[in-house]
Design goal:
By secondary structure, the chain is mainly beta. The chain has a single domain, classed as Beta Barrel (Porin). Helix content is 8%, strand content 53%. It has 4 helices and 20 strands. It has an 18-stranded antiparallel beta barrel.
Length: 404
């Protein structure tokens, strides 16, 4: 899914230079610009193993504007706002790290230049690359400050290079919307270091063979960790029967300074396998992932820079994917497209952590509906997850969003 979004993003940005979006004067570039946005309302509720319950209603807005292209140049801006007016003390504490954060922020403000099949962007922006990525699963999307280049000159191939020096998290942990800083989320709530010299990424995505997508990516959080990722994913059809097979591999190498400060080993890796099938709207997959038993300084694998760089096949619907050392995880998902606009499903994830002799399980049900006709652009979703064994509790997420 992330790779599809990435390819679409490249096409949209490159498309700004087409005749339908091009301008002859600076005034026309602004007059012919495009406005887009989203109105959102999210309700999150949870109950922990002691029976304590908390809930949070959050409303928000995302408003973006892109100029038309002038000699290949264009500007883009996106502002976000969020408010949780009825939050009590318990909800503020429970959701402070990712959902409870009121205020407004200018998350995108970039200059883009397109020449042929190459687009360069510099400024603040949302990114969707394999190892440096924005997440849209919560009310506020995280963003990056830096530069990126996307090239599609090679047939069926997308090449990406990027450098980021600051990260805007969803919240600041103190009740406010996130602010741009040098502190980066690296796939762990407890491991959020300051990247004094930023980080960079390289990625290549190839679709030369019909049905097969090959992905290779590298990220370097300078003086912290180097991350490598590879994936081969194949999708095919035999009549009305669809099938898929995918494999992935992560590798982390931590800097000597991190090892000296926190202890542990310097390397850790993980791999995953996924098999899927579909028939007349019925879709499903089974997946397996395993993390090596290395006792690294961060107590687990780092999945990437930003909240959206999380590609492990065995991720639960709501809970985060688990990257602890010497862990084995399994996932089974079955969902059904009732119509082209409605989908319901269920997922079960089990994680066995032999390193700490712990087990976790997640049982989830979910449903989504996209409205058409007069309400086109409106989407609602409901997700419920029961956490069993060593991760007790329940979560309920209800989301409504209208894109325009």
């Amino acid at each position: 899914m992330k790779l599809a979004k990435l390819s679409l993003a490249a096409i949209v940005v490159a498309g700004l230079t087409s005749s339908s979006f091009a301008a002859d004067t600076l005034a026309d570039a602004f007059k012919n610009g495009k406005v887009n946005g989203e109105l959102k309302a999210y309700y999150f509720a949870n109950e922990d193993e002691t029976g304590d319950r908390d809930s949070l209603l959050t409303t928000g807005i995302l408003l973006g504007y892109k100029t038309a292209s002038l000699y290949g140049f264009s500007l883009g801006f996106t502002a976000q706002g969020s408010a949780s007016p009825f939050a009590d003390k318990g909800a503020k504490a429970d959701y402070s790290s990712y959902e409870y954060g009121s205020g407004a922020a200018l998350s995108e403000a970039y200059l883009a230049y397109t020449l042929g099949k190459t687009t360069a962007m510099v400024g603040r922006m949302f990114l969707d690359t394999p190892l440096v990525a924005t997440s849209g699963s919560k009310m506020t999307k995280d963003a990056f400050e830096g530069a990126a280049i996307i090239n599609t000159d090679l047939p069926n191939t997308t090449l990406i290079a990027g450098y980021v020096q600051k990260h805007q998290d969803r919240t600041d942990g103190n009740g406010n919307i996130g602010k741009f800083s040098k502190t980066f989320g690296l796939g762990s709530v407890s491991f959020r270091p300051e990247l004094k010299d930023g980080g960079y990424t390289l990625a290549a995505i190839n679709k030369s063979i019909p049905g097969l997508t090959l992905t290779g990516a590298y990220a370097n959080a300078i003086d912290i960790v180097q991350i490598a990722y590879a994936e081969a994913a194949y999708e095919g059809k035999a009549g009305e029967f669809g099938y898929s097979l995918a494999g992935q591999y992560y590798y982390n190498s931590f800097d000597d300074k991190v090892i000296a400060a926190l202890g542990g080993e310097d390397n850790i890796n993980a791999y995953g396998l996924k098999v899927g099938a579909s028939f007349k709207g019925l879709n499903g997959y089974v997946a397996y992932a395993q993390v090596s038993n290395d006792d690294v300084a961060t107590a687990g694998l780092v999945s990437g820079l930003g909240n959206g760089a999380d590609l492990l096949y065995t991720s639960p619907v709501i809970g985060g994917a688990y990257y602890g050392p010497d862990s084995k995880s399994y996932a089974v998902d079955l969902n059904y497209d009732i119509t082209a606009a409605a989908n319901v499903g269920a997922r079960y994830v089990e994680i066995k952590n032999d390193f700490d002799s712990e087990k976790y399980s997640f049982t989830s049900v979910y449903g989504y509906y996209k409205f058409e006709a007069a309400l086109k652009g409106l989407k609602v979703g409901v997700e419920y997850e029961d956490k069993g064994k060593d991760a007790d509790g329940q979560d309920l997420w209800v989301k409504a969003g209208y894109k325009f």
